[in-house]
Amino acid sequence: MNILLVTDPYPPEIRAISVMMQELAEFLYKNGNSITVLTSMPQLKLIDSTTKADLPKHRVENGVNVIRAKIPFQNKNGFIFKALSQILSIPVLYKTYKLNNNETIDIIIVYSPPLPLGIIGIIFKKIYGSKFLLNIQDIFPQNAIDLGVIKNKYIIYIYELLEGFIYKHADLISTHTPGCKDYIRVKKHIDENKLITISNWVDTRKTNAKNKKSTYMEKFSLSNRFVIVSAGIIGPSQNIDLIIDIAERIADLKDICFLLLGNGYEANKIKSLVKKKNLKNVIINDFISESDYKLLIKETNLGLISLSTKNKTPVYPGKTLGFMASSLPIISFLHENSDGHKLIKDSNCGYTMVPINTEESEKLLRFVYDNRSNLNRLGVNGYNFCKLHFSRDVILLKYKNILQTLLNSQPNNY
């Protein structure tokens, strides 16, 4: 099969989903497919010493044909710039692909968000008669509406029209949790036969290695501390304000330190808040490489997951599986509808709650700390559950079989 994977995040950008997209592409190549990745120039922290100047628009990486395009306004903050960038990405990505590759396409896989990338899938479907698989990780625009990022009713209407148009033309829509699948089926009125659940995955063999030590524990002076780690985008969805409030309230527990790794729209605000409150138990650092991160979390005590209670869609952060694969127990503060609650309870890998207020959240953290002798057992539970249900090789084989079935299916002729 000739397969085109359209995704905004891709290595060397440091994000969990970047690694997943690379693993998917390389797996498909190793299984006899011709695979092209169409992506943007990376935006965030890059792996090790890689710079954007090192990245040509077109090169082969481990057998995968990778085409990168420079998208206007991509590195600008603010909703207007983000919207413009996403809209302009459509002609830019299309033109960049046509200049660098003239092969026909059997299957197009589009990772969303950003939602407008789905238009690329529709365009190539029409040109080549390809099958179009839409992989939804976050349900946009609903997540932005819930967080108050989009308030204008006309903009909401336009985005929801675009969402419905893309869903209609996709041959298959995949979500990574059953809750997201049910949400789209019920709220967006999508035929259940068009929806499937393909879980996100993690390489449990690689993350379970114990033969190396991280240098970051010493760098951050954390060797003798009880370290609670979180990593990823720092934005309105992550509810980091709650974590800062908890950190302030438990300052009497001198052993505890919160290590927040990442960057994003609200990073500077959070750094200013930590400085204003003079918190000595919070360290904020930019993204680190995937290899360093996997070594680091092996030496921490608790994985932290947090999402704003304003969220209404059933998602949970991708870092959850990374924690589980590293035998790291979890404490989570998630909105009521998140599938993360069920995952943590089913796997018995930690503690989870809806953070109704700061006081109750503080109580949970104090309880976890007081009962920290149980954490090793919970971490082992998480790893075993993850290996059984979210192993990379198992999920990618399922992905391969789904693509073969999709290729042989009747076309969606919208």
Give a quick rundown of the structure.
The chain is α/β, with parallel strands linked by helices.
What's the SSE blueprint?
Blueprint: E1 2-6, H1 16-30, E2 34-40, E3 58-61, E4 64-69, H2 79-100, E5 107-112, H3 117-128, E6 131-136, H4 142-146, H5 153-169, E7 172-175, H6 178-187, E8 195-197, H7 204-207, H8 216-219, E9 226-233, H9 240-249, E10 256-263, H10 267-277, E11 282-285, H11 290-298, E12 302-306, H12 319-325, E13 330-333, H13 340-347, E14 350-353, H14 358-370, H15 375-389, H16 392-407
Parallel strand pairs: 1-2, 1-5, 2-4, 5-6, 6-7, 7-8, 9-10, 9-12, 10-11, 12-13, 13-14
Antiparallel strand pairs: 3-4
Helix pairs in contact: 9-10, 9-14, 12-15
Walkthrough of the structure:
- The protein is an alpha/beta fold.
- The chain contains 16 helices and 14 strands.
- The strands form two sheets. Strands 3-4-2-1-5-6-7-8 form an eight-stranded mixed sheet. It has a six-stranded parallel sheet with strand order 11-10-9-12-13-14, with helices on both faces.
- Helix 9 runs parallel beside helix 10, helix 9 packs across helix 14 and helix 12 packs across helix 15 (375-389).
- The two termini are 23 Å apart.
